[in-house]
Specification:
The complex is a heterodimer of chains A (about 425) and B (about 950). Chain A is of the alpha+beta class and about 425 residues long. Chain A is about 15% helix and about 40% strand. Chain A is built from 7 helices and 23 strands. With about 950 residues, chain B is α+β, with helices and mostly antiparallel strands. Chain B has a 5-stranded antiparallel sheet, with no helix packed on it. In chain B, helix 2 packs antiparallel against helix 3. The chains are: A alpha+beta (about 425), B alpha+beta (about 950).
């Protein structure tokens, strides 16, 4: 099982280590550093690194490497999933997960890690159970603790761990009973030069924020559940009901959780809400190139496209760019060659465009590669797959909860080749 | 007020200050001090000197303080074992605490203190906790057993904790079950022989029930444990599969992959005709696709596993090509894996899309990735024949970009395409030649030179081109030098008039000025060849090359089957069996896919016709580039050796021996155009022979001259039954002909004359090739020995048993009938040596249910002896592999009627039993082949 954990920042300092079995010398990280050196960028460090006596499995998030050390045959996905869970937990506890924050809360971090694994076996990884065991730090609590000498360690048995619904605390009480569901869809797509879709798929999630008293039993049904190709549920969802009736039936955890994630694949026709018109010309043996891109709405079901950001990694030969946007702000970093244009909202009457010239290395030939345009955007009140919630019912409790459902579509990895 | 303040006191005397604070009377100050100590500990500072002071803080009601002290203890108890004993009492007391949280915490912490002296005290509290009324305590205690086992395995066994742990598998609480399974699995890993997880249908049922209710991590342990179970029949396998499939919808990718492992393994037992089989296949695709939208690290592991799954069951993902398209900001490790899977999935149906993508990738920034993409185009061309033309034109487009590394890669792959489709795309040679000057990598140069040499007659200025390379001959790498030598010799043989000077130049460069023995030796061979017999030289150097085909970067089928059992583990990431890399190799148990069960077998036709094999579904195999080039380099020594590395090296050995030993005799006396069998000169006996005969074996698969094993004569027809005629005999096979050696004895009182013999129709069409010739009448008590030549062109009828032969013998007295069983090895023909690639392909092609396994007992021979013994009976060893000390021999043989039998023979040193696995399209011969093996090996 998981032997040890090292947190390493991007400059290669180990700033936290935790061992669940015997202590593994931190010199084991030298193998990691070697791999890090070989990989040109932090993202490219391979996630599984063998060393003579151990295996190092790592994830890279928030500019921190979380490196787990294992000694025996352990499913790597198990370790990697767990590491991601650690990061999520930190984020949940401290709002952000960064080196200074972890250092500031090192005792809580240590206590949490101790609760998450025992002898390398996962112990408590559900955030609401952890929070019962170790209260997250808040300014108020810190002040209270200092005055009263009390601690942020709960001395309750984490009751949830024993019940049939381990994800839910018992005895939950709210004055306002509310249940909110956010249907969020991300489109991953590759669009080719000519504007036709090479591949497109939708990753959707339903995130919930449920604050209901007692033990409510909810059912959620969709207008068109057949849309979903593959679904992964929170453990609270009764799989049998979904199989037979395509209804989500569950006793929700208390607070925020991801109820469902789903996948709508390329086989079903995925609507592409934006298009990009581009003309990028590196003229041979001239030191000036022309650059022009226009962004416009395509299939948006009448909803506005907001928060559009266009980024593109320009070839090395581009020395600088002099561009004028019709709206928004743009920047070009001549060192990293990264062009970024914050467009904002698209007005269908007046399409935003970015035009101008590129100064190229004089005398150099045309760059070998074409830049790829990366697009970010958001569409409120629309689930692009067409998924719609039909109704939400509550059983088991008497009160009338307040219910709300929100839809949103975002760009995931949305790339346009030029 | 953040914890960072604990890091700031790095002055001198810090330890001293902390000591004072730890001994303070104020609770608050104490706690702050412990926190500081912990903070120092986490960043790796040594605060072990404070041990007694911290331990003193342990007697407290404050839960947080207690936890902090526990944290400290776990870290430093090892370095202060004597002091740690001080803490024991508190632990024992805490294990009795009314609060289950405290009990669990105490038992958990105790297990983490890795001090021998303490472990003794641990046993009693642990025993109690394992039977605690609270499941939370029980599940913590279960893990504690694993911890204790790690520290002192003997103690755990002596105290009977393992049995208690096994009992916990039947616990009412799913969490306890999951932890018990996890603990047992971990213990089992260090005890491969012990049968800790004794799985039976009852315990499986309990696990399946717990599976639905326990935590995600527990599900992983349970699924991994289920995967080790072998259901008794297909019905049980199906019912387990049905209960495991819902796990495919879990949000935790590790759960999904573990479920996939169980399904992939048990699917092996299900009949393909079953509706459920199809349903299951359909259910597997979406979760695998979804894994690819996870974080890149998860994607990587998923992709490595999908790579195995696609090789085993390509039908699962054949429609999902698009999800493997590369996004430009994928990490490089994800890109390369996706590319590999794309090629595996490429088929005629999607090739256009794949090519368009690959071409796109070839213009990316990352050089490594671009190179791999170009190679991928070549692999597509070889794999999907219909696409070859498209691939070539795509490659030409890429060459036009003039991007140096793209051009070089393209030329390397075009060379492979030429070898696969000779005389088809030679029109592109002109374009290739234009880029000659820009090639600076040895592999590309060698490839280009090969092309020029191979097509010298169509390139007008081939001599100029090659001459230009010759100038810097000594600066080239060996690869290029060898290739250049061969190319110029080819050129000379094609255009002898203009290139005499050139060839002399290169031969002298190779033989006189070079220090490289390979180069020198090849130079000498060519030189002698050319000077003694140019016709022979032509035959050898310009011999027709077999096509390269969809060869191997596929994982070997047996290894693949083993790896399928390890889906989701490190083994699946490395594509190596765990024994190859797990620390210490603690006698890892081999896993294998379950055989298809008996009840399902009946639904499938056992007599699969040779042509009926589903070859279309087999994924194509393409050799890694290195091997290809290796082949090319060896090309001119003899027809290409696409054999195993072992064989290749023996060829080179052979070549060296040739020069050392009897070069003159070989070159001088041998006519290469003669059948190779005759070409083995008698004077090259055993010592050189080993290398040499290998050489010839590889070229033409000719057996040795000694002939097969001959069994002693046995009495077939006793005198009692045949009015005084006794016939005994045996079968022999020598130099390709079968004969029946008969001994006729007249035990009657009268003279016997007019002998004749006839065979009934039999399974292999054996028939007398000549009449039975007994020249003189047989007087009483006289014995005559006759050898009756047999042919295999007689009429065929399947006999029972298969090798039954019914014979009728006539003499002047009467006609007598008898039947005898002939050993099958007399039917093993001399050209039964299969090409290695073909062997791999055929092995895959033949359905698993045709595989039969046998034990050959009491045969204390080593691999060499076995191999040579079998060879003399025309069972040919194609490859030999050593897996963890066991020798695996891969062998082939062919029967007179063209049936191939493939065999895998496992030889364990020190174990006189051999394991023989036979695969054959006509499985009914296996039993007899096994008997033949046994007879040959035991005599």
């Amino acid at each position: 099982m998981i032997h040890s954990l090292f947190l390493i920042n991007s400059s290669g300092d180990i700033f936290l280590e935790k061992h669940w079995k015997s202590v593994v010398s931190r010199s084991v990280c030298d193998y990691f550093f070697e791999a890090q050196e070989r990989a040109t960028e932090a993202e490219n460090v391979p996630p599984v690194i063998p060393t003579p006596h151990h295996y190092l499995l790592s994830v890279y998030r928030h500019k921190i490497f979380f490196v787990a050390v294992i000694q025996t045959e352990v499913p790597p996905l198990f370790v990697i999933e767990f590491l991601h869970r650690v990061v999520d937990t930190f984020q949940d506890y401290f709002g952000v997960c960064s080196e200074p924050v972890i250092k500031d809360n090192v005792v809580v971090v240590y206590e949490v890690l101790e609760e998450m694994l025992d002898n390398g076996f996962p112990l408590a990884t559900e955030s609401n159970i952890l929070k019962e065991l170790i209260k997250p730090p808040t300014i108020l609590r810190t002040v209270v603790n200092t005055i009263t000498g009390s601690t942020n360690v709960g001395d309750q048995l984490p009751t949830g761990q024993l019940s049939v619904v381990p994800w839910r605390r018992t005895g939950v009480k709210y004055t306002n009973n509310e249940a909110y569901f956010d249907v969020i869809e991300e489109i991953d797509a590759i669009i080719d030069k000519s504007g036709s879709t090479i591949t497109a798929e939708i990753q959707g999630v339903i995130d919930a924020c449920v604050k209901l008293t007692g033990m409510p039993d909810l059912t959620l049904s969709f207008m068109n559940p057949r849309l979903l190709d593959d679904v992964s549920f929170h453990p609270c969802v009764r799989f049998k009901r979904w199989e037979s009736e395509r209804i989500l039936s569950f006793i929700p955890p208390d607070g925020n959780f991801r109820l469902l994630s789903y996948h709508v694949s390329a086989q079903n026709l995925v609507a592409i809400p934006v298009y990009v018109k581009h003309s990028i010309n590196f003229r041979d043996s001239s030191s000036l190139g022309r650059f022009e891109i226009t962004v416009g709405p395509k299939q948006t079901m009448g909803k506005a496209i907001e928060g559009v950001i266009v980024t593109s990694q320009m070839p090395k030969g581009v020395l600088n760019m002099s561009l004028t946007p019709s709206q928004g702000m743009h920047t070009f970093d001549p060192v990293t060659k990264m062009l970024s244009w914050d467009v904002g909202k698209i007005n269908p009457q007046k399409l935003p465009s970015l035009k101008g010239t590129m100064s190229l290395q004089a005398g150099a030939s045309k760059p070998d590669e074409n830049p790829t345009i990366n697009l970010q955007f958001k569409i409120q009140q629309l689930a692009i797959s067409g998924l719609k919630v039909n109704r939400l019912d509550m059983y088991g409790e008497k009160y009338k909860p307040f219910k709300g459902i929100k839809y949103m579509t975002k760009a995931g990895k949305f790339q346009v080749r030029t | 007020m953040t914890d960072s303040k604990y890091f700031t006191t790095t002055k001198k005397g810090e330890i001293f200050e902390l000591k004072a604070e730890l001994n303070s009377d104020k609770k608050e100050k104490k706690k702050e001090a412990v926190k500081k100590v912990i903070a120092s500990m986490t960043v790796g500072k040594d605060v072990s000197a404070l041990f007694p002071d911290v331990v003193n803080c342990m007697q407290t009601d404050n839960l947080e303080l207690k936890k902090l002290v526990y944290l400290y203890l776990m870290n430093y108890a090892k370095s202060q074992p004597d002091m740690a004993i001080m803490a024991v009492n508190t632990f024992v007391k805490d294990c009795e605490d009314p609060n289950p949280l405290i009990r669990a915490l105490a038992v958990r912490t105790m297990g983490c203190i890795r001090v021998d002296k303490i472990t003794e005290y641990l046993c009693e509290p642990l025993r109690k906790c394992l039977k605690d009324e609270d499941p939370y305590v029980r599940k913590t205690a279960a893990v504690c057993v694993a911890k204790l086992h790690d520290i002192n395995a003997q103690l755990v066994e002596d105290q009977g904790f393992l049995d208690t742990l096994k009992d916990l598998i039947s616990d009412s609480n799913p969490m306890v079950v999951a932890n018990a399974v996890a603990a047992l699995s971990e213990i089992a890993e260090s005890h491969p022989s012990s049968n800790l997880l004794d799985l039976n249908p009852q315990s499986i049922n309990k696990l399946l029930t717990a599976l639905n209710e326990c935590t995600e991590w527990g599900q992983i342990f349970i699924l991994d444990c289920l995967a080790n179970y072998t259901p008794k029949d297909d019905r049980e396998a199906q019912s387990i599969c049905e209960r495991v499939t819902p796990r495919l919808s879990h949000a935790n990718s590790a759960v999904v992959l573990s479920a996939v492992k169980v399904l992939m393994k048990f699917m092996e037992m299900l009949s393909k005709d079953l509706d459920y089989y199809g349903t299951l296949l359909k259910k597997l695709a979406p979760p695998l696709v979804t894994l690819l939208s996870a974080e890149p690290e998860l994607q990587y592991v998923a992709l490595r596993n999908i790579n195995l799954i696609v090789q085993k069951r390509p039908e699962i993902l054949k429609h999902e090509m698009k999800v493997f398209f590369v996004k430009y900001n994928d990490p490089i490790y994800v890109k390369l894996e996706k590319l590999d899977i794309m090629i595996r999935l490429a088929s005629q149906a999607n090739i256009a899309q794949v090519l368009a993508e690959l071409k796109e990738y070839a213009t990316e920034v990352d050089v490594d990735f671009v190179r791999k993409a170009v190679r991928a185009i070549g692999r597509c061309a070889i794999k999907v024949e219909q696409s070859a033309e498209r691939c070539v034109s795509t490659l030409l487009d890429l060459i036009q970009t003039k991007v140096n590394y793209v051009v070089q890669e393209a030329i390397v792959v075009i060379k492979d395409i030429f070898r696969k489709y000779p005389n088809k795309y030679e029109s592109v040679i002109a374009t290739l030649c234009e880029n000659l000057d820009s090639l600076d990598e040895p592999e590309a140069r060698a490839a280009m030179i090969w092309i020029v040499g191979e097509y010298a007659e169509r390139i007008d200025n081939a001599d100029e081109l090659l001459e230009s390379f010759l100038e810097g001959f000594h600066d080239e790498s060996t690869q290029v030098q060898l290739q250049l030598l061969t190319a110029i010799v080819k050129l000379f043989l094609k255009k002898p008039t203009e290139t005499q000077e050139l060839v002399q130049q290169v031969l002298s460069l190779a033989t006189q000025d070079s220090d490289n023995p390979d180069l020198r030796d090849r130079g000498y061979i060519y030189w002698r060849l050319l000077s003694t017999d140019p016709v022979a030289a032509k035959e050898v150097v310009l011999a027709e090359k077999p096509l390269i085909s969809e060869e191997t970067d596929l994982i070997e089928p047996t290894l693949l089957d083993e790896l399928i059992c390890y889906i989701g583990t490190l083994a699946s990431v490395y594509h190596k069996p765990p024994s190859a890399f797990v620390e210490g190799g603690r006698g890892v148990v081999h896993k294998s896919l379950p055989p298809r069960s008996a009840s399902s077998e009946s639904t499938e036709s056992p007599e699969a016709a040779p042509t009926g094999a589903p070859s279309a579904e087999q994924p194509d195999v393409i050799p890694p580039q290195g091997d290809l080039l290796g082949d090319l380099l060896n090309l001119d020594l003899g027809p290409p050796v696409s054999g195993p590395p072992l064989a290749t090296s023996s060829v080179q050995m052979g070549a060296v021996d040739l020069l050392g030993g009897g070069l003159d005799s070989l070159i001088g006396s041998t006519n290469f155009t003669a059948p190779p069998a005759a070409a083995v000169p008698a004077n090259l006996g055993a010592p050189i022979g080993s290398g040499l005969s290998d050489l010839f074996d590889l070229t033409s698969g000719v057996g040795t001259l000694s002939g097969s094993y001959v069994a002693p004569k046995a009495v077939w027809l006793p005198a009692m039954k045949a009015k005084g005629l006794e016939i005994s005999g045996t079968f022999t096979r020598q130099v390709g002909s079968i004969s029946m050696d008969l001994q006729l004895t007249n035990k009657a009182l009268q003279v016997m004359t007019d002998f004749a013999i006839q065979f009934n129709r039999n399974s292999f069409g054996l028939a007398p090739a000549a009449p039975l010739q007994v020249h003189a009448p047989l007087s009483p008590n006289q014995t005559v020995e006759i050898s009756l030549p047999l042919s295999t062109v007689g009429s065929v009828m399947k006999m029972e048993p298969l090798n039954n032969l019914q014979v009728a013998v006539k003499n002047n007295i009467d006609v007598f009938y008898f039947s005898t069983l002939y050993p099958l090895h007399i039917l093993f023909v001399e050209d039964g040596k299969m090409d290695r690639q073909m062997f791999l392909g055929t092995w895959k092609d033949i359905p698993n249910e045709n595989e039969a396994q046998f034990q050959i007992r009491d045969c204390p021979l080593n691999a060499e002896a076995v191999s040579s013994k079998l060879q003399s009976s025309n069972i040919f060893t194609i490859a030999k592999r050593n897996v963890e000390g066991q020798d695996m021999l891969y062998q082939s043989l062919k029967l007179t009627n063209g049936i191939w039998v493939l065999a895998e023979l496992r030889i364990q040193p020190g174990n006189p039993s051999l394991t023989l696995s036979l695969k054959c399209r006509a499985p009914e011969v296996s039993q007899h082949v096994y008997q033949a093996y046994e007879t040959i090996l035991k005599n």
